[in-house]
Amino acid sequence: MSRLLTYVTLLFILYFTFKYVYSGDEHNKQQTSTTSIAITTTILRPDVSFTTWLDYHLQRAKYIMVHMDDPENTRETIEQICSTRPNVILRNGSQTKPEMTPESRIMLRQQDNVLEAIMYFLDPTHPAAWLVHIDTDELLYEPGGETERSWNHHQEAGSVKFTNHEALPLMEEVDNPFVSCTSFRVSSGGTKHFMAYGNGKAAVRLSSRVAPSGPHAFTGYRGDLYKVPAEEAMVLHYPTPSYERWVAKYKHFGQFGDYWYDDPTVPNKMDFMKRSRDVVQMAVKSGDWTEARAFWDSWVPKQGSSEWREDVEMERVRKYEPLAGLLGAKGQDRLDL
Ligand SMILES: *[C@@H]1O[C@H](CO)[C@@H](O)[C@H](O)[C@H]1NC(C)=O
Q1: 235 and 250 assigned to the same domain
Q2: Ligand 1 centroid to residue 79 C-alpha, Å
Q3: Is residue 12 part of a domain?
Q4: CA of 218 to the centre of ligand 1 (A)
Q5: What is the pTM of this model?
Q6: What is the pLDDT of residues 88-146, one digit of tens each?
Q7: For ligand 1, atom 1, which residue shows the shortest CA distance?
């Protein structure tokens, strides 16, 4: 009798052990409580690329928190997109500094939004081990996918730095840059010819004193800063993929000053950005877009030119197709292009 009881007890233990081990989230089998990832982002205006962005990152992240920078005008659209994706958490973004020009105030708002995300994912009812802060014009790309050696499995790392590469713009209008842009200027070739930042993006292991330190880094974490090898994980940035998007972006930025946050101690050293401001603002006032167009065209690489061939040969320019592997390997239906 007692032997039977022992067998029954053993069977129960085995059953519950297996049930526990195999109960993991379907598409996140590799992630445990110490390796799970949340992504946080702030969005101004969604376009078709936003659903691609969400579905692409939902393959890797347990949660995505989306802060709306302009909820009054975009709430309905964004709510509609997010409502069919249960692991996406939607929030009104910080509205701090409405009087400041948008290129600077967005960073202050992101600071608030990332802090909110940190608090949210520290809450044990919806916990994540890691938080990644990226924008909706960026893809976190890991060519080999997640393995046991991936950055989020590094137990001694408190924060992680990803290098970033920049999508080369195209002559024609693009609906979905993540699909259309496949050539990138890589940061190892120097960031002199970048149209935007070249100092990478970061993730942090969540703990109580963690805070954002600008859009590219974190402070207050325990452990080391781990610089992820560029071939393992990278941020692909699509800042101004076409003339139309460049014009829209710099119309939105407006007549911003030469200093970030109007602070004379923090000069804006991004020449492409300041020059874009000048030519776009001039065209807005005069109605003559000739000079703006010429400036833009000078930044679009001419495929087949000697300069282009040299960039390719020296590997300053490389091809990446982050969506191709995903579409091929993990079912065509998951991505809503
Ligand atoms: C979010 O923003 C919308 C539109 O501006 C507003 O109607 C709503 O009350 C806000 N929600 C919260 C929780 O603040």
Answers
A1: no
A2: 12
A3: no
A4: 28
A5: 0.88
A6: 999 999 999 999 999 999 999 999 999 999 999 999 999 999 999 999 999 999 999 99
A7: 92
